[in-house]
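Example (one chain per record):
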Amino acid sequence: MVDDWEHTSLNDLETNPEKPGRRWEVSPALGIDEFNFNVAVLEREESLSQNHFHYHENQKELFYVVSGACRVETREEGFTATEDEFIVFRDGPAGAHLVYNPFDEPCKLVAIGWPQDGRYPVRQLETAADVIDATEAERD
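Predicted structure:
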């Protein structure tokens, strides 16, 4: 690392095996303390969160779909987010969400959360399986 800048690649970083999908936690690797910056690849049936519909009491989140598509479930509706689309979740209960991939193709996305220390507490409301089952039942 140079004092004023750093250059790296996802290929140079390790993924976090404790998180769903393949997830690169870029912020800590680059010494960034102001926000969380993650890149994730979700295969079919993988959820971005650790298998729950949730919200953060003190953190907002921004997602950018780099490639593929994913399903997004909120309190009000569910929709498919595709390449080059953005989704923002506010902090607090109104921002409850689940992001998952029910499709055959992988979904690559960028997730940014701020402030960084607002990640916790996370409020888990329902399991991903319960939300997905209810959503699929509504569509049938």
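Caption: The mean pLDDT is 86.
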